[in-house]
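Sat 14:20. Reprocessing the chain from the morning session after the first attempt stalled halfway. Input below, unchanged.
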Amino acid sequence: MDGIQIGTILSAIYWHFPVLYNILKFTPLPAVRRMFASRDKLLESGRVAVDNSRASATSKNIFANVLEQADKDDPTMTEKEIVVHAAAFILGGTDTTANTLTYLVWSVLSRPALQAELEREVSAVDEPLMDSTTESLPILNATVKETLRLYGAAPAALPRVTPKNGVQLGEYF
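Finished this time. Tokens:
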């Protein structure tokens, strides 16, 4: 978990301040060295995910198409790029899921009437709980969608750039 948290910080520095990131890579301070060691551990997790995906011939997962392309004679991505993307999926999926679930639980628990409705809806579902069943639960799905609408899953603000002369979106300028 520490590696994932540090990886998030390093990713933000890398994308927003690439020059600072490159300077930090060569900084001998122990705290900075630990940050980059955590990055290396995250990349190793990406390597393990790629290796596991290659080893599992029967299961299709998020890496299947990327690996299939990379294993061809004329790959569009290098092995290192695939591992970096796998680590990014691990990092991105962890924070966004945790943030979304935190807001979802908070939103439900702060509204007792909603909590009661959700409990009633979910308790009426027969076991075993399946994806197809939960997809048909209107209150649960509305709650998830509203949580995603109100509290975006990105762990940091995404850059917004207005074109120099503005932009027309439908009937709005």
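Residues 79-109 form the longest helix (31 residues).
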